Amino acid sequence: MLKSMLGRPENFRMYWKEFMHQCVEMGIGSLSIVVIVSIFLGAVTTVQTAYQFVSPLLPLSGIAQVVRDSMILELSPTVLSIVLAGVIGGNIVSKLGNMRITEQVDALEIMGINPGGYLIMPKIMAALFVIPLLFIVSVVIGIWSGRLIGSISGIIPFEIFDNGLLHRFDQYNFYVGLSKIYVFSFIISSIPAYYGFHVKGGALEIGRAGTQAVVVSCILILITDYLLAALLL
After folding, report:
1. Contact 38, 138 (CB under 8 A)
2. Burial of 50 by CB count in 10 Å (0-12 exposed, 13-18 middle, 19+ buried)?
3. Cβ distance 75 to 142 under 8 Å?
4. What is the mean pLDDT of residues 1-5?
5. Domain spans in the chain, listed from the N-terminal domain onward
6. SS3 label, residue 202
7. Collapsing DSSP states into helix, strand and coil, what is residue 11?
8. Per-position DSSP letters for 69-117, written without gaps between them
C-alpha cells in the first residue's frame, strides 16, 4: 500500500488541497479532545506526585520536574496517541472503507488517478504535520494544568512550581518525545488507512475494520513506545 502511494502526483494542486483539508480536519477535529485529556493528565500527575512526596527531605520543586518530564516523555506522546488512534484512525477507516464499498476508489482508477497516492498519502503527511503540533499543545496545557491545580489545591505555590519547571531542564527529553510522536503519527495514519482501503463487504465490515485498526494501532504504539524508550534513553 505504501509503495502504491509513492508515485508522481497527477495534479499537485489537487494533492495539496487534499493535504490541507486533512490538516484542518485532523487538527481542528481533534483539538478539543486533546485539550480535555491534557488538562486532566497534568492535574492528575501533580496530585499523585505530591501524594508520593511524603518525605520532608524532598523539595516541592521536584513535583514540577516530574510533571514536566512525565508530560514530555510519556503522557503527551503515548496517551495522546492512543486517544488519537481512536479519533483519527476511526475516521480514516470509515471514510476509506465507505469509498471502497461504494466503488469510488475504482472510479478514481478509471479516471487515471492513483487512489493510493490521492487518498492515503495526504492523510499520512497531514498526520505527520498536525499530530506533532498537537503534542506540543498537549505538553503546554498539561504543564499549565498541573501548575494551576497545584496552586489551587495548596500543594505547591506558583513560584516554587516555576522554579522546579526550569531547574535542570534537558532539551534531549523534548527530542525524545518528538521522536516518539512522529513514529506514532505514522502508525495512527497508516494502519487505519490500510484497513479502510482494503475493506470488503458492507457497513458491518467497515465497523469491524475500524475496531481492528484501532486495536492494532494501540498495540503497535505501546510496543514502539518501549522500543524507542529503550533505544533513546
Report:
1. yes
2. buried
3. yes
4. 79
5. 12-232
6. coil
7. coil
8. HHIIIIIIIIIHHHHHHHHHHHHHHHHHHHHHHTTHHHHHHHTT--HII
pLDDT at 127: 94
Q: What digits encode the pLDDT tens for the residues 134-181?
A: 999 999 999 999 999 988 988 888 888 888 888 888 889 999 999 999
| Backbone φ and ψ of 11, nearest 5° | -145, 105
User: Among 135, 151, 137, 152, which Cα is nearest to 64's?
Assistant: 151
> Distance between CA 29 and CA 27 in Å, rounded?
6
C-alpha cell at 166: 526550569
Degrees to nearest 5, angle at CA 184 with 183 and 190: 90
What is the H or E stretch that residue 233 is in?
A: none
- pLDDT, tens only, 193-210: 999 988 888 778 888 999
Q: Residue 126: is its pLDDT beyond 90?
A: yes
Grid coordinates belonging to 48: 499523585
Which single residue is written with the C-alpha cell 494533492?
15
Residue 57 has pLDDT above 80, yes or no: no
Half-sphere exposure of 172 (CA within 13 A, CB side): 5
DSSP state at residue 170: -
How large is the C-alpha radius of gyration of the chain? Answer: 21
> Are residues 63 and 166 in contact, defined by beta-carbon separation less than 8 angstroms?
no
- Say if residues 220 and 191 touch (Cβ distance below 8 Å): yes
> Would you state the cell numbers that stand for residue 64, as one nine-digit string?
514540577
| pLDDT higher than 80, residue 192 | yes
Integer Cα distance of 125 and 19 in angstroms: 7
Torsion sign across C-alpha atoms 187, 190, 191, 192: positive
